[in-house]
Amino acid sequence: MAASDDTESKVSVTQNSLCHNDGYDKKCIFCKIVSKEIDTELLHNDEELSCFRDIKPGAPHHYLVVPTRHVGNCKSLRKEHVPLVEKMVEMGKTMLQKNGITDLDDIRLGFHRPPFCSVTHLHLHVMAPASQMGLMSRIFYRLDSYWFITAEQLIQQLNSQVETN
To answer: What is the CATH number of domain 29-160?
Structure first.
């Protein structure tokens, strides 16, 4: 019985580091958007992922794909979160295609690295066409920068981690 209790407490600690008890952080604006406490059009919403437009778009099409349950920023992720990030990428591409974007080579998908993310709820920036991003957006969402990591780079980084038990 003690071993079982120990396992349960480890699971609880792990979950709480990424996700609050019920997957909702009452101080998180994205949790409020996903739970429809804030009047924002949800382009997609299911048990796993939600998508909505960025309030300050950096490109003609700028969406945010977030886990429906609260998950910390990209630095809190581990190797076991690769499938989540991959699903977020697929959702982003699907949303672009649903909105008439056919050139998936002219897109930018990525995450701001802490402390440069304004909301600690994990969110993928999905922008297109990248060629039409303005000067400030090119800086804020610059490839190979200290403050922004592409989804592909994050997945590679997570896959290179040694799994912890």
So the answer is: 3.30.428.10
